[in-house]
C-alpha cells in the first residue's frame, strides 16, 4: 500500500512518542467538540440558571438567591436581606417582584424569602454531608450586577471555620465568588445545590465559602412549618485551638475549641464553663474545630442535655483539671 505524506507524518509521531514514553491521544477536535466535564457544566448552567434570582435590599445593596420551591420559596443569605421585611426579587425572565422575608438567622447567615408566584423553576437540593474534597463545584450568582454568572472550581475543603469569621462548618471552594454572589447556589456536577454562597476571604484568590445546604434546608423547613427558626444555644464565644498555640503553651491536646467568652445567664454559664476552657468532646464525639461544634449542636434541640468534656487551664495556661459537665441547651435568641 502506498503511503501518503500524512500517513508518514503520523508514523513518525507514533515512533517518537514510543521512544520518549509518551502516549499521544487522538486529537479532540476529530472526536468531540466538548470535554465530558464541559458538557456537565453546560447542562447544569442551562438547567439551574432559571432558578437563580437577584435579591435587592433597597438603598443598601444586592445579592443572589435560589428558588427551592415552585410556590416561590427562596434561599439566600441573612446579610443580603439585612433587617428588611421586603426585598426586590429579580427573576430570570426579567420580572421584578416583591419578596417577603419570612425569617433570617444571622448566626448561620441564612434567610428565607417568598414571592407570591407559583409554577416557578426550581433547583434540586443535594446532600452537603456527602461532599468530597476535590469534586466539581459550580457557583452561580449576580456579581456586581452581572446576572447569572457561572464560575467553576472544586470543593477545596469541608467543615471550615476560617479565622475572623463568625460562621463555622463552612464549605470552602475555589469557584470564584465575588460581591453580589452571596446567596446564590453552589452546585455539584449533577446540578444539585450543595451550598449557599456566603463569603470570600478578603485579599485572597480562590478562598470562597458557602453555607452547607443541609443547614439552610433545615432552617427553611422550620420557617415553613413553625414560622420561625428554632436553634439550640450554648452561649459561648468559640475559637479553634491551633497547633501553634498548643505547642507554644505545651498543652496536652493539639485540637479542640477554646472558650473565649461565656455569656451571662447562658446554658454554658449555668453549667460552669469558663473562659480558656478547651472543649474536646461532646457526648463522647471529638470536637476538633468550631465547625464540628456547630455541626453537633445543630443536631440537638432546645432542652436537650449534652455532656461536654474540657481541659481547664489557669491564668498561666497550666492544666488544672479535665472536668465533664452536663449542659441543658436553650433556644437561641432571635435576630
CATH top-level class of the domain at 232-331 = Mainly Beta
Largest sheet: 7 strands, antiparallel
DSSP strand count: 21
Low-confidence stretches: 3-35
Q: Kindly name the structural category.
A: alpha+beta
The whole-number mean of residue pLDDT values reads 85
So, CATH architecture of the domain at 232-331?
Roll
> How far apart are the first and last residues' alpha carbons, in Å?
82 Å
Q: And the CATH topology of the domain at 232-331?
A: Pdz3 Domain
What fraction strand? 25-35%
Order of helices and strands: HHHEEEHEEEEEEEEEHEEHEHEEHEEEE
Number of helices: 8
Helical residue percent band: 10-25%
Globally, the shape reads globular
Rg, nearest Å = 25 Å
CATH superfamily placement of the domain at 232-331: PDZ domain
Textual characterization of the structure:
This protein has 8 helices and 21 strands. With 335 residues, it is an alpha+beta fold. Among the domains are: 131-211, Thrombin, subunit H (Beta Barrel); 232-331, Pdz3 Domain, CATH 2.30.42. Strands 14, 15, 16, 17, 18, 19 and 20 form a 7-stranded antiparallel beta sheet that branches. β16 and β17 form a beta hairpin. The longest helix is centred in the N-terminal third of the chain and has 16 residues, at 5-20. It is globular, with a radius of gyration of 25 Å.
Amino acid at each position: 500500500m502506498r503511503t501518503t505524506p500524512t500517513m508518514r507524518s503520523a508514523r513518525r509521531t507514533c515512533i517518537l512518542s514510543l521512544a520518549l514514553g509518551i502516549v499521544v491521544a487522538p486529537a479532540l477536535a476529530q472526536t468531540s467538540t466538548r470535554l465530558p466535564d464541559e458538557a456537565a457544566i453546560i447542562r447544569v448552567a442551562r438547567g439551574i440558571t432559571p432558578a437563580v434570582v437577584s435579591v435587592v435590599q433597597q438603598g443598601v445593596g444586592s445579592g443572589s438567591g435560589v428558588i427551592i420551591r415552585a410556590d416561590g420559596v427562596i434561599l439566600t443569605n441573612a446579610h443580603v436581606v439585612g433587617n428588611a421585611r421586603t426585598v426586590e426579587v429579580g427573576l430570570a425572565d426579567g420580572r421584578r417582584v416583591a419578596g417577603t422575608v419570612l425569617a433570617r438567622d444571622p448566626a448561620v447567615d441564612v434567610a428565607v424569602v417568598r414571592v407570591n408566584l407559583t409554577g416557578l423553576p426550581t433547583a434540586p437540593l443535594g446532600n452537603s454531608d456527602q461532599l468530597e474534597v476535590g469534586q466539581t463545584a459550580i457557583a452561580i450568582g449576580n456579581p456586581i450586577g452581572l446576572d447569572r454568572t457561572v464560575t467553576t472550581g472544586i470543593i477545596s475543603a469541608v467543615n471550615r471555620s476560617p479565622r475572623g469569621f463568625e460562621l463555622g462548618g463552612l464549605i470552602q471552594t475555589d469557584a470564584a465568588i465575588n460581591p453580589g454572589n452571596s446567596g446564590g447556589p453552589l452546585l455539584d456536577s449533577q446540578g444539585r445545590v450543595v451550598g449557599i454562597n456566603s463569603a470570600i476571604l478578603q485579599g485572597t484568590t480562590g478562598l470562597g465559602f458557602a453555607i452547607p445546604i443541609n443547614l439552610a434546608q433545615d432552617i427553611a423547613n422550620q420557617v415553613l412549618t413553625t414560622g420561625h427558626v428554632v436553634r439550640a444555644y450554648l452561649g459561648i464565644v468559640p475559637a479553634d485551638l491551633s497547633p501553634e498555640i498548643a505547642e507554644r503553651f505545651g498543652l496536652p491536646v493539639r485540637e479542640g475549641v477554646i472558650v473565649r467568652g461565656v455569656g451571662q445567664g447562658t446554658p454554658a454559664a449555668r453549667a460552669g464553663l469558663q473562659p480558656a476552657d478547651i472543649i474536646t468532646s461532646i457526648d463522647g464525639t471529638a470536637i476538633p474545630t468550631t465547625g464540628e461544634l456547630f455541626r453537633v449542636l445543630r443536631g440537638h434541640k432546645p432542652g436537650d442535655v449534652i455532656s461536654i468534656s474540657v481541659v481547664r487551664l489557669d491564668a498561666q495556661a497550666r492544666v488544672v483539671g479535665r472536668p465533664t459537665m452536663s449542659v441543658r441547651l436553650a433556644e437561641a435568641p432571635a435576630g
